[in-house]
Amino acid sequence: MSQRIAMWSRLSLLTLLLLPAPALAGGKEKVAALAPSGLVLVMDAKGNELVAQNADEPFVPASVTKIVTAWLAMQVLGADYRFQTRFYLDDKRVLYVRGGGDPFLISEELALLAPALVAAIGQKPLTGMVIDASYFPAGLSIPGVEDSQRSYDALNSALAVNFNTINAVRRGNKVESAEKQTPITPLAIREFQARGPKGRGRVSLSQNPAVSLQYAGELVVAFIKQAGGSFNGKISTGPVPASLAPIYVHRQSRPLSKILSELLLGSNNYIANQVFLEIGAHRLGGPVSLEKSVKVARESLAAHGLDGAIVLEEGSGLSRGNRFTARGLAKVLTLFAPHADLLDGRKGASYKTGTLDGVRTLAGYTSISGHGPVRFVIALKGNNGAMRFQLLQAIESGL
Fold first, then answer.
1. Rounded Cα distance, 61 and 59, in Å
2. In terms of DSSP H, where are the helices of 168-268?
3. Contact 15, 9 (CB under 8 A)
4. Which residues is 383 bridged to in the sheet?
5. Are residues 119 and 235 in the same domain?
6. Does 263 lie in the same domain as 249?
7. Residue 60 lies in a domain
8. Three-class SS of residue 130?
9. pTM summary value
10. DSSP per-residue codes, 262-290
């Protein structure tokens, strides 16, 4: 019997020695072994820090920034806030469209809008369209948003359709819409032929604001025609005459809470900054400006003791000038907890990822046996995105 016990003892010891070191250690040791230079903070519902590794080191949050933007939007605008687009008609049947920065003015929304607009203006031909985009000043620049053709670099605008992008497909010499809900327009064909890749693809209209406004006008016209209206004129830009009152005001069918859910799920940078810009204009008056939104954000954060802990240059996470501390973000997670269901949720955890070259972040909520619900912040330097989830798994395995 003693020999058998000794044999099993040796086998058990050998098994332990063959296991990876992190598997022998507790949760904190696992975290340290996996990413000794990583920033990791885990706090329970009472504010106790279960893991605090490099937690005071400021980090670039990347798209984790969108959690802060979503919290600010819920604070300033409210869950039921609806973006608006206003329409005016003069005595010559020129239709004026005043953009209100609606981030979700997509084809499906235009299909809802057009019948109500035609009912208001009638079916007699329109003689022209003038787009008033003055709610967003000319020259508006967002730090980190590049002047490129990539769809995630789309230009922010007072009036933009389909996130300021065109999705088309080339079949031979013919360009067609890649979305059955979106009519193809002359400008869409030209832009895709000039810049789109062969085959199917989405291109951004970030190069020229006039081009994106022209496309928005063309698509509005296409949906007006689909709804039984008529248009015989040109599309131009300019202010709405002060003497005109709106003939129709379209309120976005999605409340802000739904837009934020889509934002956090898809991590759309264009939507994030449309929302961020509205925060400032709503509180301080239009037109929008990055300075107004940064000011409102700073004041809201300072009211919760977060001045310096959360520094924002813009609302999407594209700017490397955004800087957070782990404890600051953990406090925002506490404040945002009533809306945690807006985040992507998988296997009991709800979180947001962030990715820039050399930056990998992860933050959100999960539960740990013996500790209950916790908030966590993970920030790593480098491009190993999988490591974020290995750390999360180590945290969830027990502390």
1. 6
2. 186-195, 209-226, 256-266
3. no
4. none
5. yes
6. no
7. yes
8. strand
9. 0.90
10. HHHHHT-HHHHHHHHHHHHHHHH-SSP-H
Q: Which residues contact 109 (CB under 8 A, 6 or more apart)?
A: 102, 252, 253
Antiparallel, parallel or unpaired: β 126-132 and 372-381:
unpaired
Using alpha carbons only, give the angle 89, 223, 262 rounded to the nearest 5 degrees. Answer: 105
Question: Which one of 208, 223, 254 terminates a domain?
Answer: 254
- In a domain? residue 272: yes
Contacts of 99 (CB under 8 A, 6+ apart): 85, 131, 132, 133, 135, 136, 157, 158, 159, 160, 216
Residue 176 pairs in a beta bridge with 169
Using an 8 Å Cβ cutoff, are 51 and 28 in contact? yes
CA-nearest of 269, 149, 145 to 204 is 149
pLDDT of 148: 53
Hunting for tokens 């007699």 — which residue is that?
124
Give mean pLDDT, residues 348-365. 96
Give the CATH number of the domain where residue 207 resides: 3.50.80.20
Helix (H, G, I), strand (E, B) or coil at 237: strand
Looking at the structure of the chain, the number of domains it has is 2
- DSSP, res 356: E
Q: What is the mean pLDDT of the chain?
A: 90
- Residue 179 neighbours by CB distance under 10 Å: 17
Please give the distance of CA 371 from its chain centroid, rounded to a whole number.
31
Q: In terms of residues, how long is the chain?
A: 399
Would residue 11 count as lying in a domain?
no
Residue 54 belongs to what domain range?
24-78+258-396
Query: Residue range 258-285: average pLDDT?
Result: 96
Map residue 332 onto helix, strand or coil.
Answer: helix
| C-alpha triplet 199, 201, 207: angle, nearest 5° | 125
With cut-offs at 50, 70 and 90, classify the pLDDT of residue 220.
Answer: very high
Query: Does residue 16 form part of some domain?
Result: no
Q: Which amino acid is at 346?
A: R
How many angstroms separate the first and last alpha carbons of the chain?
38
- Residue where a domain stops, chosen among 234, 254, 274: 254
Instruction: Fill in the DSSP letter of residue 147.
Output: S
CA distance 154 to 152: 5
Q: CA-CA distance, 221 to 236, in Å (whole number)? A: 13
Which two tokens mark 100?
A: 């209100």
